[in-house]
Automatic annotation (TrEMBL):
<dbReference type="InterPro" id="IPR001910">
    <property type="entry name" value="Inosine/uridine_hydrolase_dom"/>
</dbReference>
<dbReference type="InterPro" id="IPR023186">
    <property type="entry name" value="IUNH"/>
</dbReference>
<dbReference type="GO" id="GO:0005829">
    <property type="term" value="C:cytosol"/>
</dbReference>
<keyword id="KW-0378">Hydrolase</keyword>
<feature type="domain" description="Inosine/uridine-preferring nucleoside hydrolase">
    <location>
        <begin position="3"/>
        <end position="295"/>
    </location>
</feature>
<keyword id="KW-0326">Glycosidase</keyword>
<dbReference type="Pfam" id="PF01156">
    <property type="entry name" value="IU_nuc_hydro"/>
</dbReference>
<protein>
    <submittedName>
        <fullName>Purine nucleosidase</fullName>
        <ecNumber>3.2.2.1</ecNumber>
    </submittedName>
</protein>
<dbReference type="GO" id="GO:0006152">
    <property type="term" value="P:purine nucleoside catabolic process"/>
</dbReference>
<dbReference type="InterPro" id="IPR036452">
    <property type="entry name" value="Ribo_hydro-like"/>
</dbReference>
<dbReference type="GO" id="GO:0008477">
    <property type="term" value="F:purine nucleosidase activity"/>
</dbReference>
Amino acid sequence: MHLILDCDPGHDDAFALLIAGASKELGLTGVTTVAGNSYLHNTSRNARTILDLFDIDLPVFAGREKPLLRNIVIAPDIHGQSGLEGANLPAMKRPIEKTNAVQFMAETIEKYDDVTLVATGPLTNVALLILMHPHLIHKLNSIVLMGGGISFGNVTPVSEFNIFADAEAAKIVFESGVPIVMVPLDLTHQVIVTDEEIFRIRSLGQKFEILSDLLIFFKSAYKKVFGIEGVPLHDPCTVMYLLSPEIFESKEYHVDIETKGELTYGQTVVDLWNTSGKKANARVLLSVKRERFFQIFFEKISLLKGV
Ligand code: BDR
Ligand code: CA
């Protein structure tokens, strides 16, 4: 397998990045960045800082700095102004690649026949890939994305951040015909990080203190904004699904993206009873075995010691 990770780090993106980087069997070939949790220059810097911290040798390509049509939205209340606040991060070393993220995606798909695209931010870059390289996208294995919700949102009552931040892009992706695995909030809220996991990460060594500080910030933001104890590990669920699909339950559904609704912009409309009669376009993850999830998560995170 060859993997591309498109992200907007982002506390939980950082963990998705680290698990993917540590799991050589996934064949991560490059990281692409998009505006989302913060502005593009911040998400591009954050991705490189995290990779530098653990000496993971991967190129980072910057993508589009704003959504396709709508105004940019970022999430400073959840991730801080920089997109990755809460820890003393070392200055980043590696330069950003000269090639644009979408171009890198296209070249990689052209080169290999087994590319999977993981997306953990707004779907702007992925939609551009579909619009600009329509002849290539059917070579893709699948797009595994964290986004949307079945029964609730986190930016509006029905809309999740990654979809809300660029619903027009999400619509293009869901209508592309590429096999999609959707990781909704309903799933990510089953893998809540508590003080126990934060402490365990801290005990792994000095560099891991930075990771635990990031989680402490992320967790306190969730307490402030949503009033919940513990923080969902949204983005790593994508990579964990690729590593261990057997710990997840899923079903195929037709999913439409709402781009017009006054109250529902950015909603993922999941047709649970197939009332539309439309063919399924996404495999939606429904549940996960929490204990196994964290077992595997820690196995992978611990590998970073030797990376
Ligand atoms: C998603 O939005 C961001 O805050 C996280 O990084 C995640 O990708 C959760 O709604
Ligand atoms: Ca993200």
